[in-house]
Amino acid sequence: MRHSLRQFLRIWHIGVILKRYRLDELFNINRLPGPIRWVRVFMPRGKDVSGLPRGERLRLALQDLGPVYVKFGQILSTRRDLLPYDIAEELALLQDQVPPFPGEEARQIIEEALGEPVSEIFASFDTNPLASASIAQVHPATLHDGREAVVKVVRPGIGKQLRKDIDLLSAIARLAEKFMHNGANVQPLKVVREFETFVFDELDMQREASNASILRRNFKDSKDLYIPEVYWQWSTRRVMVMERVSGLPVGDIDNLKKHGVNLKKLARRGVRVFYTQVFRDNLFHADLHPGNILVDATDPDDPTYIAMDFGIVASLSTQDLYYIAENFKALFNQDYRRVAALHIEAGWVPETTRLEELEAATRSVGEPNFTRPLNEVSFGKVLFDLFQVAHRFQLTLQPQLLMLQKTLLNVEGLARQLDPELDIWGVAKPELETILREKHGLENVSHELLERLPGWLAQAPEIPGLVHDFLVKANAGQLLTRTTSEDAAKSRHEQRVSRNKVLQVLAGGSLSVPGAILTAMETGPWFLWGYSTPGVVLLVTGGWLIFKALRR
Fold it and tell me: Strand, coil or helix: what is 306?
């Protein structure tokens, strides 16, 4: 009873705030149940905000509702495929501005998590936090060897609070899906489920520390990006200790100019960091707003980015990464037919989609941008518009792809802020081509094939039997189990793709196996050209065929 009363009061509070900011207008009032329509009459309206845009009203309402709802708005801003542009842009402005919890409480959490007094772990520990957000807050400290550090501590009780608020959000989402204008298309319940995944991942400091550690390894000795070191011996699920870094806020352009920072070089480096993280490493920082980025201006003419807060890091499947790279290259070359074909081949739109119609839709997005000066074109905006247009073809994308698009918009916005004349396309195209050329070069491909070869050889004896069974069933029509014409066409397409894969793997195996035998017979290292040249040619060619078949 007490729990139900608290939940009712919380819903009432939410309803009051929604009405205060006129957000009840987003709902179809006539479809609401009678009691709700009656109760809303008694809710206070508050000050008049009718002159404010709807996106700003929504942002202000989320800020009034508290930190969990602010975090929800931040995640919601990444779903630009579902939200109107004005609302997505406004929600992207949400920043965590949360009162800190007591420093002594943070000290107690640290001691419980690490199992020893703070005085034995640190030479000094400041109970006054450097920063406080919805999930955790950060305290400065000094290690006994003199190194400066920061200690990130998860808020006490935040897990339980999140659980309550997410359950409440789910209940609201069900109502919104039923009564909100266009609610079924926005899919609010699905968005809440995505938010639940992201936010509970952020509660795990070990996960965040792992993200930081891998990014640091990927950019070791890089002049483009610096990642602080994680001190693993003092990091747990509730506490993370890492190197303290200092720099100039990337959003403070006047201060950067005052220190003589080369803004043009810094802007180009920001674009390069994004493409390197995505297409070379397939691991990108997905929360790159100015509050998470500093600039090391020790050498103003050769500035370096410093990244912080690694709670939201994303990667793509091998297939999606391949198709995104190919889409980027096709867009750079204004090859709209290739873009359309890639969307169908990737399975982002149904296989029954007419190529010519999707090509025309893609052209309608690309051409208006290419006719503008290139320093005004946003590739992230083009990608966003492309996703929006493709929605009428039943576009289906994973959240990671939308995080990629949102991150690209952030990176481009930051780069343009640093250098308003920056030609994003002129910088991005050669960067992408260089990264892909190196990644798919002979050395990297040979290394990947060498790693996979033992597994392929171990499975080789089973392949003839599997191929025989597959072809027998295909010939007998046993693989066609669907009944509708659309499903049957899709099934036939899948069989053609599978059959082509099998034939390509067989062709690759027939070349790579004798190639491996020939190279194994040599005494020298096979990867040096001149040692069993025929074997190397057979191995690389066959392995490449297999590699291409398996990545599709």
Answer: strand
Q: What is the DSSP letter of 232?
A: G
Higher-confidence position of 489 and 133: 133
Amino acid making up residue 442: L
Residues 394-425 as b or e (16 or more Cβ within 10 Å = b): ebebebbbbbbbbbbbbbbbbbbbbbeebebb
Domain range list for the chain: 2-96+161-199, 102-155+204-244, 249-440, 442-551
Which residues, in sequence order, are CB contacts of 83 under 8 Å at separation 6+? 76, 77, 91, 186
The C-alpha atoms of residue 544 and residue 509 are separated, in whole angstroms, by 10
Spatial contact of 88 and 80, defined as CB atoms under 8 Å apart: yes
Residue 341 · residue 356 · CB < 8 Å: no
pLDDT of residue 482: 46
Three-class SS state of 530: coil
Residue 236 and residue 114 in contact, taking contact as beta carbons nearer than 8 Å: yes
If you average pLDDT over each of 36-45, 196-205, 453-462, which comes out highest?
Answer: 196-205
Tell me if 390 sits within 8 A of 437, measured CB to CB: no
φ, ψ (nearest 5 deg) of residue 271: -65, -45
Q: Among the CATH numbers 3.30.420.300, 3.30.200.20, 3.40.50.720, 4.10.375.10, which is that of 102-155+204-244?
A: 3.30.200.20
For residues 497-511, one letter each, b for 16 or more C-beta atoms within 10 angstroms of the residue's C-beta and e for the rest, the string is eeeeebebbbebbeb
Assign 139 to helix, strand or coil.
strand
Closest-CA residue to 398 (of 315, 510, 519):
315
> How many CB atoms lie under 10 A from the CB of residue 263?
20
* Block residue for tokens 């247009």: 389
List C-alpha distances in Å: 197 to 88, 200, 235, 311.
20, 6, 22, 12
Which two tokens mark 51? 């002159």
Q: Are 349 and 394 in contact (CB under 8 A)?
A: yes
Q: How many whole angstroms from its chain centre is CA 79? A: 11
According to DSSP, the β-strands at 304-307 and 225-226 are parallel
In 3D, which of 315, 316, 311, 312 has the Cα closest to residue 283? 315
pTM equals: 0.72
- Residue 502's pLDDT is 56
Provide the token pair at 360: 């025309």
pLDDT at 228 (0 to 100): 96
Nearest to 268 by CA among 162, 402, 427: 427
Give strand pairing partners of 27.
180
Closest CA to 337 of 363, 312, 314, 317: 363
- Catalytic amino acids? 287
- Comparing 17-31, 99-113, 155-169, 240-254, which segment has the lowest mean pLDDT? 17-31
Query: Max alpha carbon distance in the chain (Å)?
Result: 88
Q: Tens of pLDDT along 456-498? A: 667 667 766 766 676 666 666 655 544 444 455 555 555 555 5
Residue 39's CB is within 10 A of a number of other CB atoms, namely 13
